[in-house]
């Protein structure tokens, strides 16, 4: 049982940075992998990045490698998505997810989802 609340989205210009936060509540947070997905208007939800439950491995979509970074602070029950060099193509609703699967690039591996936070990047 995990509840996720995302924050940190906003309206920025291309090249700017944002840091998204995902605060989790629940007794088993430390045992969950964390992932970020995004969904743009008219598009399917797509994988962005994930981090293992112990933080020892990460996986990034090719489109965000070198620009985005995921991290987690288990003491604060929080996962972060640092987004740098934002592009208009990054505009989407970003969702935090928690799961105990192994193929963390798949949305079906996640059991819990946040409400989403809007990120809009203008040219």
Query: Could you give the count of β-strands?
Result: 11
Measure the end-to-end span. 40 Å
Estimate the helix proportion, in percent: under 10%
- Biggest sheet, in brief? 7 strands, mixed
Poorly predicted ranges (pLDDT <50, ≥5 residues)?
none
Structural class: mainly beta
Task: Characterise this structure.
The protein has 123 residues and is mainly beta. Helix content is 0%, strand content 51%. The chain contains no helices and eleven strands. The chain has strands spanning 3-7, 10-13, 18-25, 33-39, 46-51, 58-60, 68-73, 78-83, 92-99, 110-113, 117-122. Strands 2, 4, 5, 6, 9, 10 and 11 form a seven-stranded mixed β-sheet that branches. A four-stranded antiparallel β-sheet has the order 1-3-8-7, with no helix packed on it. A hairpin with a 6-residue loop joins strand 5 (46-51) and strand 6. The chain is globular, with a radius of gyration of 13 Å.
């Amino acid at each position: 049982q995990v509840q996720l609340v995302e924050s940190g989205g906003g309206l920025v210009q291309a090249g700017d940075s944002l840091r998204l936060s995902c605060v989790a509540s629940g007794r088993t947070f430390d045992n969950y992998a964390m992932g970020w997905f995004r969904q743009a208007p008219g598009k399917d939800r797509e994988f962005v990045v994930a981090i293992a439950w112990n933080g020892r491995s990460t996986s990034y979509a090719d489109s965000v490698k070198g620009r985005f970074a995921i991290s987690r602070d288990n003491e604060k029950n929080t996962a972060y998505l640092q987004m740098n060099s934002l592009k208009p193509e990054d505009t989407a609703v970003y969702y935090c997810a928690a799961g105990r699967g192994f193929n963390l690039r798949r949305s079906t591996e996640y059991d819990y989802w946040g409400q989403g936070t809007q990120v809009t990047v203008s040219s």
